[in-house]
Every structure is written in structure tokens, then in C-alpha cells.
Automatic annotation (TrEMBL):
One of its GO terms (molecular function) is hydrolase activity. It comes from Actinomycetospora succinea. Its cofactor is a divalent metal cation. Residues 1-159 form the Calcineurin-like phosphoesterase domain. Keywords: Metal-binding. InterPro entries: Calcineurin-like_PHP_lpxH, Metallo-depent_PP-like, Phosphodiesterase_MJ0936/Vps29. Its EC number is 3.1.4.-. Belongs to the metallophosphoesterase superfamily. YfcE family. This is Phosphoesterase.
Length: 178
């Protein structure tokens, strides 16, 4: 099963010439499951993802208004090919992230999962908590901020486990508006 992980698309009327890179749309079209960790900023973008994705697991972010919050949860949890996955926008500061994630999402936590996808920082992240929860932040395909490139991630689920995770860097011409 192929996953596409993205977050922080930040599409807004403030940037009318910005769209998502073609490479990201191609990944949406070929993924079995698309995971979006919030900060859409435009309900029309959610409409487009719902139309194009075979399956969408998504949440709202801190920059998403009432229209998006009415349609999306703060945290979504799903079974993806036997893998228990959660997606939420914010996990707080990097310092202590693994500990906080284990309290909420680790074994014995409020919502035990195998993988937690998050956004907010625009900084790609891949770590595993002491409790065994894989933490993934795909970065942003549109706003690199202090990173060398805009990014997204793909992953594969095999036999109920996360088998392959890849971070993709977008060419500067592919991602506009930074």
C-alpha cells in the first residue's frame, strides 16, 4: 500500500499564483492513501484532495478557519493496511516531542498508534519514540522556510507495518511562493 504524506500546503488568496507542484499532484493520484497534516487554508484545496485521492486521512491546522475545521478533525486516526495511523497538526516543540507523543499515542496512551504524522514546523522529521511510535513530519511542499527545499514524503505499508519511508525534495521551480 502506497502512502503520500504532506502538510502545510498554505494555499490562500494571498498567494493567487501559487498552486501545488505537479509532482505532488502526481503522487496524490498514484497513492492508495493520502495523509495531510493540516494548514490547508482553502476549502477548495480540501475539495480537490477529496476528489483526487483514493482515500484521504486528514486534520485541520492552526491556520485553518471555521469552514475547514467543520469538515476535518483536530486529530484523525485510521487503520491503513493493518497499520494504526494518526495525523495531527501540532506536537509542540522538538524538545520532548517523543515523550509527549508516547503519553498520547504510545502503548497505554490515550490513542495508541504505530505512526503519527504531524506538520506545523515545515521541518521534515523522522524519529521513533521510546515506546515505538514512528513520528513523521513531511515538511511543506510550498513553504520551505528555513529548510533547503520544499518537501513531502511517501511511504509503503506491508503486512501491517511501515516498510519504506522516503523524503522527496521539490525542485525550486516546482514549488513557488516561498
Amino acid at each position: 500500500m502506497r502512502l503520500l504524506l504532506t502538510a502545510d500546503t498554505h494555499l490562500t488568496p494571498r498567494y493567487p499564483n501559487r498552486g501545488l507542484p505537479d509532482e505532488l499532484w502526481a503522487a496524490v493520484d498514484t497513492a492508495d492513501v493520502v495523509v495531510h497534516a493540516g494548514d490547508w487554508m482553502a476549502p477548495e484545496l480540501l475539495d480537490a484532495f477529496e476528489e483526487r485521492a483514493a482515500r484521504l486521512v486528514a486534520c485541520w491546522g492552526n491556520n485553518d478557519g471555521d469552514a475547514l475545521r467543520a469538515r476535518l478533525p483536530e486529530t484523525a486516526v485510521a487503520d491503513v493496511g493493518g497499520l494504526r495511523l494518526a495525523v495531527t497538526h501540532e506536537t509542540g516543540a522538538a524538545d520532548g516531542r517523543e515523550r509527549r507523543a508516547d503519553v498520547r499515542f504510545g502503548p497505554g496512551g490515550e490513542t495508541p498508534v504505530d505512526v503519527l504524522v504531524f506538520g506545523h514546523s515545515h521541518i521534515p522529521w523522522d524519529s521513533t519514540t521510546p515506546g515505538g511510535v514512528r513520528l513523521l513530519n513531511p515538511g511543506s511542499p510550498t513553504e520551505r522556510r528555513r529548510q533547503p527545499a520544499c518537501t513531502y514524503m511517501t511511504a509503503e505499508v506491508r503486512d501491517g507495518a511501515l516498510a519504506v519511508v522516503r523524503r522527496h525534495e521539490l525542485a525550486p521551480a516546482a514549488a513557488r511562493g516561498r
